[in-house]
Design brief:
This protein is elongated. The protein is an alpha+beta fold and 422 residues long. It has 2 domains: 68 residues; 316 residues, Porin (Beta Barrel), CATH 2.40.160. The longest helix is centred in the first third of the chain and has 41 residues. It starts with a helix and ends in a 7-residue tail after the last strand. It has a 16-stranded antiparallel beta barrel. The protein is built from 3 helices and 16 strands.
Length: 422
């Protein structure tokens, strides 16, 4: 644009002498000088405008990139265009730097039980997540989550590539992932509505849910309904299960298979419903047979009474079919949870959760057939980057013991965080 403006000025300069040769009356030199000064001022103003527009375009591209990637960062506020802007050296170089964020999950656990188990009667950094990710190219993205903890060694929780544009409009994920199984297990702890995972998830899939090295494909079914979407996911993952999980055995060599169907319905602008169906199959020991089949059902209903007040109802149910030959073990253990969460205001929320689960290894002499728990909690949302929560839990265990717990939790996120605090 600069070159176009200067070329226009030179053309004007050439026109004036030509008009004199053609017999036109000569211009006054003082008037010509004044016109040249006006043109110079116009060029300066146009150059400033170009620099300002370029700066605004860069800000808009940055905001659009953050929204497309679902990252959480400070809201981009476009300032009034400044008349001058310093030249940028190596424009776009920062686009090659990875996005980095950190999330700290600090908890206090006060328990009636005297057992010296993980976290009991202790204030600790339960988890510190280092999140690193970036677009690889227009078709794929890499994301990773490295965790640090007071209880465990440094662990690689996630490290996977997401690829779009596969044949038939498939989306693929490859690497260490949280498989799309149900609701609570497939999200990070900071996205839960409670301090801990539901008991059925802890007992069957693992204390922190399930994450394994896997290959996964997802596809949106092209059905003609405007308010309903259907996504089907299928994957194969390494054998084994999450920490202290009992659904499968511990051998990693024998892969496990899973599928998930997600149905999302918009009843109105204020109410929506998500229904899910999950199937898992794998081995309970080191052989090559799939002795364990499990199905899961999940439902989540969200209704907005006002833009600030909403009610969330969520439940998951898991049923197992196990080929158990050991005496005293149940072939068909099952479990569920039901949760209600109400947002009182933008800053405060309350809720409750009921847990029921039949342990896989429940002994015959146990006085109860299941673990049952009642939970109540209060959440203070300081901002989208900081949240505080208090939770009370009464637990009745299958072995006959009872326990009352109080959880206190503080969660803080900084940098680029790919999932906003719920």
């Amino acid at each position: 644009m600069k070159k176009s403006i200067l070329l226009a000025v030179l053309c004007l300069c050439c026109v004036f002498p030509h008009s004199v040769r053609a017999g036109a009356p000569p211009l006054d030199m003082e008037g010509l000088t004044a016109q040249m000064d006006e043109l110079k001022a116009l060029v300066v103003d146009l150059e400033a405008m170009v620099r300002s527009q370029q700066a605004r375009l860069e800000d808009l591209e940055q905001a659009n990139r953050a929204l497309r990637e679902g990252s959480v960062g400070p809201q981009v506020v476009l300032a009034s265009p400044a008349p001058e802007r310093a030249p940028v050296t190596a424009p776009g170089l920062s686009a090659f730097n990875p996005e980095i964020g950190m999330l700290a999950d600090v908890t206090a656990n006060l328990s009636q039980s005297r057992a010296d188990t993980e976290g009991n009667d202790k204030l600790s950094v339960r988890e510190l997540e280092l999140i690193i990710g970036h677009d690889v190219d227009p078709y794929s993205r890499f994301d990773s989550t490295i965790t640090f903890s007071d209880f465990e060694d440094v662990a690689l929780e996630e490290a996977y590539i997401t690829h779009w544009g596969l044949p038939l409009d498939l989306k693929g994920r490859l690497g260490r992932i949280r498989p799309k199984i149900g609701k609570a297990s497939s999200v990070h702890r900071d996205q839960l509505d409670t301090v801990d995972e539901p008991l059925v998830v802890q007992s069957y899939l693992g204390v922190e849910g399930l994450y394994r090295t896997a290959a996964e494909l997802s596809y949106f079914l092209p059905l003609p309904w405007e308010r309903v979407t259907h996504e089907v996911t299928a994957g194969v993952m390494e054998g084994g299960i999450g920490e202290d999980g009992t659904l499968f055995g511990s051998t990693r060599r024998r892969p496990s298979l899973y599928t998930h169907l997600k149905n999302f319905v918009d009843f109105s602008d204020l109410t929506n419903l998500e229904l899910g169906f999950t199937h898992l199959t794998g081995s309970k020991d080191a052989d090559e047979h799939f002795e364990v089949n499990a199905v899961g059902f999940d439902a989540t209903l969200v209704h907005y009474f006002t833009p600030q007040n909403k009610l969330k109802l969520q439940s998951e149910l898991y049923l197992q079919n196990r080929d158990e030959t050991d005496a005293g073990l149940d072939d068909n253990p099952w479990g569920l949870y039901a949760l209600a969460d109400y947002r009182l205001s933008p800053r405060f929320g309350i809720g409750g959760r009921f847990d029921f689960v039949e342990p896989v290894d429940n002994a015959v002499e146990n006085p109860r057939d299941e673990d049952v728990a009642w939970n109540g909690y209060l959440t203070f949302y300081q901002s989208e980057f900081a949240r505080w929560r208090a939770q009370y839990q009464h637990l009745e265990e299958a072995d006959g013991g009872n326990d009352d717990k109080v959880f206190l939790q503080g969660t803080v996120a900084i940098g680029v965080h790919k999932h906003q605090l719920q």
